[in-house]
Amino acid sequence: MTARRRSHQQGKLSFWENRHLRLAAEIVAIAAFCLLLVVTCLGASLALVSFQPVNMQLLAFAHSDSSPKELQAYQNVATQTLRYVTILPFETAFTLQPSAADLATLQLDSFSPDELSHLTDVRILLGGSLLLTYVVGAAAMLVLGLTYKTRFARRSLLAAGISCFALPLVGLAVLLRAFDPAFDLFHQLLFPQGNWEFYTTTLVISTFPEHYWQAAGILWMVFFLLGGLILVFLSRFCGKMPAQSVTNAQFRVSICGAD
Length: 259
Hints:
By secondary structure, the chain is mostly helical. The chain has one domain (about 1-259). It has eleven helices and no strands. Helix 2 packs across helix 7 (about 150-175). Mean pLDDT is about 85; it is low at about 240-259.
């Protein structure tokens, strides 16, 4: 038994003493933690874009040619819609029904069954994404709290920050050069059932026109870039040993010793 235990311990030591295996394990750990941080930044950016005050500004931009009364009606419809699609999976959904006064102001019909079906799909996807963000973000903060004094935390934060810089630049190039194909591909991948195309006269398209999604996409990337900047900034404070303070008594002893 003693010989087996010694051989087992020697096997463990040989693994961690192997420089290549140790480097590979560190790279895998950094990549995993980096992924957690990037997903957290993605979800946090999405949550910020879904924040009601931010959306009111996006709607004001998208409906800049509307009258104040029409803009208020669009904002009322959008507020109720955003509350509906951001319900978390464990919360109870409510019935989405814009007020008759807002519909009369906009001279539009209420959401059709196909529109409601699509918004329900969006609620399932978006609510699940927000819940995942909260869980992954909590896990990332826990890992960071346990490892913030190590080089592992510094390298992970730096790698995640650089990733948060690179991904939005690619997305911005796609958004500016090929918004329509990218928008269609995005919906085809996430909503393969196909209930996401509507006429421009429908309530969902009138409330959230193309300009809204373009501005929301750019704002999402800006928030993502800011998240990367925060991660790079935090990396500067991780994995560093605090400088030793020298007291006056130690200084006098060192001077006397030098004499």
